[in-house]
Records
---
Amino acid sequence: MTTMLPELQDWVDSVARQTRPDTIYWCSGTEDEYQELVQQMLGDGTLTTLNETTYPNCYLHRSDPNDVARVEHLTFVCTESQEDAGQNNNWMSPADAHGKMDALFDGCMRGRTMYVIPYCMGPISSEFSRCGVEITDSPYVVINMKLMTRMGDQALKRIEKEGTFVKGLHSTGDLDPERRFIMHFPAELSIQSFGSGYGGNALLGKKCHALRIASYQARREGWLAEHMLIVGLESPEGAVHYVACAFPSACGKTNLAMLIPPDELHDWKVWTLGDDIAWLHPDDTGKLRAINPESGYFGVVPGTNAKTNKNAYDMIRHDAIFTNVATTEDNEPWWEGKQDGKPAKDWQGRDYDPANGPAAHPNSRFTVAATNNRSYTNLADAPEGVPISAIVFGGRRKHVAPLVYEARNWEHGVLVGASTASETTAAMVGEVGVIRRDPMAMKPFCGYNFADYWTHWLNFKNLTAHLPKIFHVNWFRQNDGGEFLWPGFGENLRVLQWIIERCEHRAGARETAIGFLPRPSDLDTVGLDISAEALETLTTIDSRKFRDELISLGEYLESYGDRTPRELLRQQELVLDALSEELAKAS
Ligand code: OXD
Ligand code: MN
């Protein structure tokens, strides 16, 4: 096949001349094509089948053991000026990066098939959607892109009509970590990724396009590309609020996006729009509307069970791809926290031996189409998206951050977002459990200087008339004995309920130096198994610790130099002063 769009045809031809594949294959996106690729990969061992009775149409992929997570230290933003990429990104000049990548791509597809994947991030007919074409030599990438995006002929038609698309070039190369780079060229709207087959490094529509490149475009065009889930909450009275929540990787976005209400709140309904990425646009009526650019989930498997996330547990029982999980004697997939069965083979295919560590890799993943999810709503396909009532930031914090608080206004909310920090997880290569700053949960994903990004956020004040309220949550607060104080999972709906009732001016709160916090009595805790002491701790702050946090936040913001918006520093000072005043009063 070919295309009518000369720019696309020329690019595909030039990539083929450089990479020298044996065959070029244009993906149509049909079910038959998916099945043929699966059969081919079953034949060469890239995939194996799982128990066909209990896990129909489910497959296991074992990646190279050195290729199991995103590689932030090998991920670059290549702008002419280093300042434009900012200290939040690794930077290389476009010329140097092209030189390096050209050498790696030269002849790298010899003996392989080159797949051309036209894809559309967002509903095909939405004016907010953006298209791209990924060229890859990995059929595993093709089938994952099929589940995760709207790809194939329908996307190609749109690309041919629009004439613009993001160019993504990917090769698994020889999986040598010394020859692995993920390069972004925002000014060229292009991405080049070499040497990794892992999701976030290789499925270029996701982090590379829908966050890094899109955030860069969004700044120029007046919208936001964010690392946020989108969930709809329908109250017993039938009012639906849509909430967008930004949490760092592997902090429970997927669980929150498909939450099941606890028994006491059974007449609430929860609708999943997206579990990882939101594109937010101001609309004509002055509201912020969101679409999910993806159409599938690439979620963390360990910990998924009927109690933590029954919707996810059920949705991955058919038509799913598992990457790096363990298997049982019956050839079912197995992972830590599954709660039934036991592992026979670990994620590397070895006989399971606890001395080798966890049976499933802690960052093992499932890929499924969003339509597998029981709480999926076809509003996820609505071209106009959904209006957002609240934006929620959060991280994994043992101490300091309370269960929930509300920012005073938009500008303060931007500070709250910028203050997001979290303990690191297995989703990225590196030490797990260390606190790192992760403003707006975008540290690994913002395609330009964070200081400019905060300015862009602050500018929304002038762009929309009805800005969402901004909140911060922390499900992970612990007591001195290291036990979690909040039960989490479905019970998080109680916090979301407070949030939307605040949006409706119905719920109570007390004003503190850091914003509005619920009193224990402001939360619906009927039937909740929690001590009064735990609830008190969750809804109060230690002003001294918070002041230390604010001081360190101020230093962090200042470290971005002159580009840091004055308004953000002013907000930081306001909170700091209020905390100092509180401490002075108390002493
Ligand atoms: C993801 C991530 O895979 O954030 O969504 O790492
Ligand atoms: Mn993510």
---
Amino acid sequence: MTIQIIKTTPFDDQKPGTSGLRKSVKHFKKPDYLQTFVQAIFNTLDTIQGSTLILGGDGRYFNREAIQIILRMAAAAGFGRVIVGQGGILSTPAASNLIRQYQALGGIILSASHNAGGPEGDFGIKFNGANGGPAPESMTEAMFAAAKQIHEYHIVPLNPIPVDKLGTYQLSGMQVEVVDSVSAYLALMETLFDFDKIAALLTSDHFKMRFDAMHAVTGPYGHRILEERLGAPVDTVIQGEPLADFGGGHPDPNQTHAHELMAMLYARNSDIDFGAASDGDGDRNMILGKRFFVTPSDSLAILAANARLIPGYKEGIAGIARSMPTSQAPDRVAAKLGIPCFETPTGWKFFGNLLDAGKITLCGEESFGTGSDHVREKDGLWAVLFWLNLLAEKQDSVENIVRKHWAEYGRNYYSRHDYEAIDMQDANALVDALQAQLSGLAGKSFGALSVRAADNFTYTDPVDGSVSKNQGIRILFTDGSRIIFRLSGTGTQGATLRVYLEKYEADVSKHDQDVQDALADLLAIVQTVARIEHFTGREAADVVT
Ligand code: G16
């Protein structure tokens, strides 16, 4: 086998963020940029020789070129076999499943998730380990350190693999298997959910749904699973063709970016009962009823409360975990079920140890991510199928299910305000100023609200004892309300400030308020404490979810 050794200069900006390395496509196309990061991944792995690697991406611009480069580098590194999704396509949860199924050393997933795509958009690459989950911080730190030392990378000569055609190919002694992107994932879903009951619901005259694939990776999954396998009408999946630039859209399943779906569900005469959307790489989900939005935090709480109705979870769940900024609605369910609820930093990687140790079965994040121990990533279509199974069991509307949940547990009013692409220095100055106030905030009152504690969240992993500091500034009030400030770890332009607001309301007669009205006093405190306009010049958030 000929291995070409290409001399290169190290990069010092290849620090993975919340979920892998994300940069603009232009940045990734710099000579040797992608190659250096791939070499950095390989240099941090010990047991490559003869092992299996899973490879796929969300189909965004540059996916195809990157797949061929990584295949050539995997052959040079000594992998015995690479399993590639057909056309280079694998949703993130499907890739996680294949890693586990093939007992692979890990997988490389090419995606910038919900970030826009196309030549002017973003690209990303992340490594998932043998458990199918995102590489832990210790490993991403090692990759970052390795990238700063790389002066050469190893690659075999160009020999394009026809990734559109299923089959097994040879690349300089390494086997490349091109597999159907959907089949194994569909088989896994069939083990968890009652497909007969869901099919009966989807084919009944009384129920209509729309699934918005946002021209991203879940198009083929939605068509195959919802329409072909479960028999939903052919117009169920909208924007189902994956496009390299997501049709110019922003593949982020929220009320702002999934506007086609929102318009369908919120039309005055809408006849659609259930709406759902997923993101670029298929791990996020948004759940809608008719003119009704389910917050991701409530969704996790409701799935947990009803898990025993679902075949895959009928024995009950061991525990729940939520990211710190996610609302405390799941905590109330865990308390009632008598199971633990863990609070982790933002980032799916923090759930991995808890899932592997069997401490939790369900987990989720406010950022439209929900999942379980069936894989080690959040899973958009899994959440949609879970909701469909629940609707089929309960024979009730989304809105009624949520309202009954609130009546039983109380309602956690919740909203996130994002200030995007602000100047990095301004953002840091704002955070520093907040940090400086923290010690003096406890005991202070703002109108009717009194601060119980204020800190910067530190997480100690209960499984391996690792400590993650500075995971978000929290202002905690005596009535359970919270304000949280974080800088996003997934943006590619400047900084994105996220402000999370939460207020608990037990009284069912007060469950009909407008969310922003219910949170208005907290937002006023945000302006006093964080002085966002002063630091950033921004009067209002860019995206409110
Ligand atoms: C990633 C992570 C999630 C995280 C989200 C937002 O999601 O996997 O765990 O909640 O980013 O992170 P941030 O607030 O730092 O932007 P995805 O869907 O982008 O991979």
